[in-house]
Specification:
Helix Hairpins
Length: 93
Amino acid sequence: MSLFGFGKAQPTSAERISAVENELKVVAEMHTRMVKICTLKCVDKTYREGELSKGEAVCLDRCSAKFFEAHQKISDHLQQQSQQQGGGFGMGA
């Protein structure tokens, strides 16, 4: 039984570390996917210039913002489902 009397045991240090490691893996995978998708969508494949054009930079900014927002909404939804089912430690993404 927990300190607060909710009947759940508190996660151990190893479980917390594992949850944080999983969180980092999810964030790293999201970043990798975002870079790949947004680069394919926004960057001209002919690489005519050494710098990003203004249009490419704006596209990348918007694409990454939308990608992150979608990822956050999905993570929040999954966390709510997990909490309703009584599982998880609620680490968030």
